Amino acid sequence: MQPGSKSLYELSYGQPQAVCGNDERVRISPTTSQPYSSICELFVEDKDGNYYAGTGCIFSIPGADYGLVITAAHCLFEFKKKRAIRSIIVIPAIDGKNSPFGRITVDGHQCFVSYPFVLGKERGSDYGAILIPLKKGWEHNFEMNVLTTEELEERVVLTAGYPLDKLGETMWSTGDVIYSLNNVTFRYEFDTHGGQSGSPVWTMYKGKWSIVGIHSGGGCPNVAVRITELQIAQFNSWARKGSTFSLKNEDMNNKNYFPNEGGLKDIYADTNELICPPGQIMVGFSLYQKFNRIAPRILSAEPDGSNAAWITNTDMNNNYFPGEGGLKDIYADTNELVCPAGKFITGFSFWKKENRLAPRIRCSDLDGSNATWISNTEMNNNNYFPGEGGLKDIYADTNPLVCRSTNSAVTCFAFYKKDNRIAPMINTLVLNS
């Protein structure tokens, strides 16, 4: 597969990455030795069906549900068009016609970028990650460390990636001392080219190869985003978006549930849609009792956490299910819903998924535009509870979940079984630092 003639960096910033003076890049072949075997070529498909090239690096987090391919945000999100990519092909250690570890195609919904990049903030926000299955042979070879400015000054760093000006699908490496740095980036005068965006920049630190930056672009001197504690925390959060959510309430001792007795057998599900005002995002969620209905309420706020208010629908109209008999024969759907990269939850509702009570989330841009309702229609998996008997002996947990930081947003939602309760769990994303 041949990528387009322009790199994603040029599409985002307009300035090509540069070879600085004499070209001192060296081809890496074979690519199966450490640390090169975890460096990946990326073929990115935009929503118009065009392909572009980038580079990434496999990085695993102990105990996480997914592996990550760390790369530049502009490889995963078209800044000028304010949209996420359609899909991405990940090929570790490709060496011409040889792909020693195979390849996978990942949907754009499994790609995540830093929120400040979406807003066009400082260059230090140009980082993101692709969620990949935990796969034997796709282990990383790098540590990741936050080095101080003193430790980075004039330090020798190296990079390797897949430049478009060289023979297609071949890895090239180079290195030099750091030329200059600030709190979020550092610069160097070694050679790069379009297609190398997202390449790891590493150094020898305490006897191990350690990633200290992500190559972002050029030219002369070229630039990398520094690894910070915030980035590492963000990578940890992204790697746990599969089945481990960052926020839920597991307290069973309080009285925050309903009904008092008898389960949900005589309770109905309210399906009215809740939508945040334009310019606001969902920063909290809870269930509440609306007479004889289980209903959602969402906490809506500005991105900086101001003007927060709970939104509910108190209308007792015909937007409910089932028609009669309550939820005694209805099950709770536990499939996870995740907004695409660059999108945030701005609305919520229940819906009837055959014999299941299931959530829907409204994902949109920050201003509420380009909104899409996302749901999971899969009925063949086992992501529901209880195993039998419906919700007749299940209670609704009403503990509110609220983002811990005033500059966070909710990006993922699911129900889970909290002993004999149906309860929500959410994942939150720090919007800026």
UniProtKB/TrEMBL annotation:
The keyword Nucleus is assigned to this record: no
PROSITE patterns recorded: TRYPSIN_HIS (PS00134)
Domain of life per record: Bacteria
GO biological process, one term: proteolysis
Class of this enzyme: hydrolase
Annotated EC: 3.4.21.-
InterPro entries listed in its UniProt record: Glutamyl_endopeptidase (IPR050966), Peptidase_S1_PA (IPR009003), Peptidase_S1_PA_chymotrypsin (IPR043504), Peptidase_S1B (IPR008256), TRYPSIN_HIS (IPR018114)
UniProtKB keywords: Hydrolase, Protease, Serine protease, Signal
Molecular-function GO term, any one: serine-type endopeptidase activity
SUPFAM superfamilies xrefs: Trypsin-like serine proteases
Keyword match Hydrolase: yes
Family statement: Belongs to the peptidase S1B family.
Protein's recorded name: Serine protease
